[in-house]
Amino acid sequence: MAAQRKTSRYVVPIAVAGIAAATIGLVPALAASGDPDLPEITAQQLIEKIAASDTQTLSGTFKISTDLGLPAFDGLLGGLAGGGSGEGSADPSAQLTKLVSGTHTLKIAADGPERQKLTLLDGEEQYSLVHNGDEVWAYDSASNQVFHEKGAEEAGRAPEKELPASPKALADEVLKAAGDTTSITVGGTANVAGRDAYRLVIAPKQQGSTVEAVTIAVDAATGTPLKFTLDSTSGGKPVVDAGFTKVDFARPAASEFDFTVPKGAEVTEGDQLEKDHEGKAPEDLEKALGDFGLGGAGQNGPEVVGEGWTAIATFDTGEAAPKTEDAPKEARGFLDALGDEVSGKFGSGTVFKTKIVNALITDDGKVYVGAVTPQALVDAANAAK
Hints:
This protein has helices spanning 2-10, 16-23, 43-52, 74-81, 92-95, 152-155, 167-178, 270-277, 285-291, 329-338, 374-383, and strands at 57-66, 102-111, 115-122, 125-132, 135-140, 145-150, 182-192, 195-204, 211-219, 225-232, 240-248, 266-269, 303-305, 312-316, 339-344, 347-352, 358-362, 366-370. By secondary structure, it is an alpha+beta fold. It has a twelve-stranded mixed beta sheet. A six-stranded antiparallel beta sheet has the order 13-14-18-17-16-15.
């Protein structure tokens, strides 16, 4: 259990190509300074190229902009997710929640699966997170606080998975999984961080999804994802626009991953932080929203209605939904800003909206959630009657 909490709290992505595909997976639509003239390539060949990529070393500057269509809530998440450790703490679980809103610039370095470094540059202050072997160090310059965790290599090790034997086999699996609900195409080329790249465009064929398209810029030489853009059908800024503005695939100097505790800094050990948080309530967003009826499936496990991009998860909490005024004070204003009252054959309830994921909570405690329009949720609730 402790290892799971450690992993969810901080783990620096195992290969920062993982940051480029996952953290990235969440930047402005692909910026082009003249689209490069590259050989034609099919979607399957491009997926094979990504699968064959073996990028282990890199360094660069990474920019991420997130617009979920939500009120500002980095303070809310920092306070809840970190058990009250938000501002003035080096705990990664509090600091990295800043990335879920606004625009941020990071410096990234990676040397294989055992050494990565991420530095968040916001204004004059910096927050650094370093994974070196079996240790993780984090430093918040604003508060002069240090976070330290031993055994990080073991805690952050992902379970082994059986993967297709070749890039072609993996590409075949991806295309097969996409099925009739997804369009995967090559949408031309782009120049990202001074490198020539192909644009892989993934889009739903179904009506009712809130996802317009996902666009991934793939380095033409290495197959490494360089940029990721997630657009919503509601238009406006991308929901997530994340990618490198500068990148170098040479191995960073070993000294890049050294860490020395700054003079006068207070050091908090990860194990001690675990103990300090035990028995306090509510100490994370899941717990806080769970108390409001948003955090779990109650006694009945979730069921899935529909398929592909318009799939909706539904479950019964087993009790009437509480009112917003009953929510923890940390979440009350946030929930008020999100909720719209709706009604139908199912009765009445509240739809909580973002640009991508929406959730309907009926007054009798049933929950419908998915990357679909509010009307699709109402339709699903009506059909269940």
